[in-house]
Each structure stands twice: as structure tokens, then as C-alpha cells.
Amino acid sequence: MRSALRDLRHSLRRVAAYVRHGRALRRAPLLFANGFPKSGTHLLTQILRAFVRLGPAVDSGLDVVAVYDGATGRQRTAAEVIADLRRFRSGDIGYGHVEAWPEVVPLLCRPGVVHYFILRDPRDIVVSHVHYVTEIEPEHIHHAYYRSLPDFESRLRTSILGLPDAEIPFPDITQRFAPYRGWLDHPEVRVLHYEDALWDRRAFLRDILKHAVQGGFPLQIPEEQALALLDAAIAPQKSPTFRSGQAGGWRKAFTPEISALFKDVAGDLLIELGYERDKGW
């Protein structure tokens, strides 16, 4: 029922957009915000939704396209993920946590799709993950387990190490990121860093706008006006998963023991993603 209502709203929004933009909507690209969970996907989606004020675009309102079901932990099939992606049409705006599966890559790296993939320091990701599972999302499959742990450090250890022996395995942070790694190798995908949105927002927004225009989005207003509208769209407190929106918060959360553990499990990942030069942090 919920899905049917979303589909209906999607259709109505497209009709309204077609009345306004005509055939230009049919030629506009799909704008898709993708990211590893807790990396800033909702922030990126807020920015992309502002494109409805920049030219022919539709806030689809469709559900997040996810590989895992949050309530059960079940990994969805490629056919299910592809079916979700095929619901999007030209000019739509959507978002997801979509791994770089061979069956999926052609759909999100083809002409007519403007694909963004957002990264965040994995140390901040695991801290955010603890707060999300423990405090924000009671329907999450691991919520009860995290709540049963005695303190924040034990929960943080779990977010780093995972639960490989659980009935539905929860891998360590490096293994969880590995299926997303393929997006970094595709030039069609614009890789963004969450931290840049905090440290140099103007350049971050300009990068997003440039990628959309290069991907075929027909910008209908001056660039400076467009950047102002994108900036005004950022409202982290409206995100259902928002907590603090900081970068580098891991420094307060990591003990020396947790730092050593993280270096052992994901030190190489930090270097690969450009967050550290070595393991001397």
C-alpha cells in the first residue's frame, strides 16, 4: 500500500513537471545520490532535490534503493535492486545505498544518468553508526543487541569488527565497504567527500552542479543563482538520520585501544580513500 501511494505521488509529480517543462523533462538525466550508509547520502539528496528549481527535474519521492533491508538484515537480490532502479525515469531525483554489483553498474553508469557517490571518513562512519543503531532507529535489526551492550566502547568495537558469527552476518567495516569500492573506478561517477560540504561548501556545490550540467542537465537559471538555491536546500536537521553532522568527531570517541583496533581492521581503507597517508595517526 505504501509503495503504491509513493508510485502515485511520483506519477502526479511527473505530470506537474511535464506541464511546466514539456519535452525537456524527457531529455533530462536521472540525478542519483548514492553512498555508503552514514556517509552523508541524505545531505546529498537534499541538495539534488533543489534541482527542481534549477530546471526540468522531479523529486521522485520513491523509497531509498538499498541492498540490505534494515529491519531484517536480509540482503536483497540483484533483481530487486534493479527493479527499484528501473522505476526512475528521465528527470527524476533519487537516492540509495547501492553496491557496485556487475548487474547494477550498467544502469547507473549509462548516458542519461548523473550519478554521485559520497564518501566519509570511515572512523566517523562507525561512530555515527553506533548512535544511529542505538538511539535513532529502533527498527534496525541490531538495535536490541547494541542496547544490550554495556557501554559506548563495546558498541563501537562491534561497528568496527561486525558480527561475523551472527545468524545474518554483519561484516567488519572494511568488508562492508568493499562492495561499494567499484564505484571509485568509474569516471561516470562523481565521487564526493562529505567533509568538503563542511569545509568548502561553495566548491562542493559547484562540483555537484558542474557534474549535472556535463551529464546533460539543462540549467535554466544563472549559475550563481543556482548555487545559492542549492546552498539554501541544505537542512541537516530535517534528515531522519541526522545527529551532529560533524567531521572528525571520532577523535573524541576513539580511545587508544579503539584506534589500534581500527588501524588493524581498516587502516588500509583509510589510506586507500585518502583520509590518511599511513597508519601513524
What does the model show?
The protein has helices spanning 2-21, 24-27, 41-49, 78-85, 105-108, 122-136, 143-148, 152-161, 173-177, 194-199, 201-214, 223-232, 250-253, 256-272, and strands spanning 30-35, 58-59, 65-66, 92-97, 113-119, 189-193. It is an alpha/beta fold and 281 residues long. It has two domains: 2-121 and 178-236, Rossmann fold, CATH 3.40.50; 123-176 and 243-272, no CATH class. Strands 1, 2, 3, 4, 5 and 6 form a six-stranded parallel sheet that branches. It starts with a helix and ends in a 9-residue tail after the last helix.
The CATH class designation of the largest domain is Alpha Beta
Please tell me what the overall shape is. Answer: globular
> Which class of secondary structure composition applies to the elements?
alpha/beta
How much strand?
5-15%
Which percent bin holds the helix content? 40-55%
Label the CATH architecture of the largest domain. 3-Layer(aba) Sandwich
**Pattern of helices and strands:** HHEHEEHEHEHHHHEHHHHH
Distance between the termini: 50 Å
Number of helices: 14
Number of strands: 6
What is the typical, i.e. mean, pLDDT?
93
What gyration radius follows from the Cα positions, in whole Å? 19 Å
- Provide the number of structural domains: 2
Tell me the CATH topology of the largest domain: Rossmann fold
Low-confidence stretches: none
What summary fits the major beta sheet? 6 strands, parallel
List the helices and strands and how they pair.
Blueprint: H1 2-21, H2 24-27, E1 30-35, H3 41-49, E2 58-59, E3 65-66, H4 78-85, E4 92-97, H5 105-108, E5 113-119, H6 122-136, H7 143-148, H8 152-161, H9 173-177, E6 189-193, H10 194-199, H11 201-214, H12 223-232, H13 250-253, H14 256-272
Parallel strand pairs: 1-4, 1-5, 2-4, 3-4, 5-6
